[in-house]
Amino acid sequence: MNAGASSRSVLMIEAVAAARLGQKGLARRLFNEIIEKEPHFEQALLWLAALADTPDESIRALEQVLVINPTNQQAISALAVQKMHQTARPTEVLLPPPPASRALPAAPFQSVARIRAISSKDGAPVHVSGSAGSAAAESVAQAPRPQFERAIRKVFPCPLCNHGHSESSDRCGHCGGMLKLGDLWQIAENRGADEELLARAIERWSGRLSIEPYEANLNIARALLSLNRSGEALPYLERACGLRDAPDLEKFTAALRARKLIIAVDDSQTIRKLVAVNLERRGYRVLTVEDGMQALARFEEYTPDLLLLDISLPKVDGYEVCRIIRKHKLLKNTPVVMLSGRDGFFDRMKGKLAGASDYLTKPFDLPALLRVLEKHLGRIPA
After folding, report:
1. Which CATH number is 261-377's, of 3.40.109.10, 3.40.718.10, 3.40.50.2300, 3.40.250.10?
2. What pTM was estimated for this model as a whole?
């Protein structure tokens, strides 16, 4: 099997699993992704017809199948029934499924306004009505069920990378994203997350905020938390809580909100990452930015409990940022800890004159940073 066929098979398995679990939006998205790669893949188009919300959508998918293969009997029968329903009130008729595939389960059709796949949890024949019902049910009952079809029901697509995982998984083994939001400490200890895959997930779900607002906000938060970016994740969690009654999520969000927010401003990506990872694991909520202008923009949305501020910043240096903060009515009393690679008396005095509360020389060790934070914010509960 070549790489393209293997990728298609994986997507089909994940798409069928989503369809059987009732996740229609995810299933349609995956089937459309398959069709984008292989526009002539009849089986994916048949599934899209089965998952359509309206008869018109189903008809379009079925007509596309017949353009590819005019002899496809499943599409011919289903299309005829769908068009009949446009002009007359239907009776419930179940058409037989397409021929079984060795690699993938077939997509059965039900000729009502909403077509659905037939399956039962225990594998028993499905009761149907109408003139074609008994023949269809007999056909389904006699058709052998592949062993993998039972296994597929135990596979759940990761909402961040679509890779299959078990229902009990706390973490996706492919992208490293945290799937269950319950234990803040466990999430903060997450290691080995794939930054590129999670960045793609954030971008993908950001484009769906207006279409699937709850799922999009929740999954963006999942990705950000998995990357130790809890400061950015909180607003998305709060929006998700406002969209749906979810007591467990509300409890998790309240626990995250209760953590002290630290904004770390440094032009070094390494410093930002080290600060975020280490402070998240010690009970802080962290937001990182790379220059003074970004920091000033963030203050319009976030009110930090403490600011870690590098002096040597592009665009606007740390001294100027600190002076602006001291004039801000909401931030004037916020502790500001200056970070600098120089430890001279003059540099410390200049920082103090700008309004700094404390001063740390880089490279600093974690115990020294924690002591400064404890001095200004108090001890974090274990």
Report:
1. 3.40.50.2300
2. 0.59
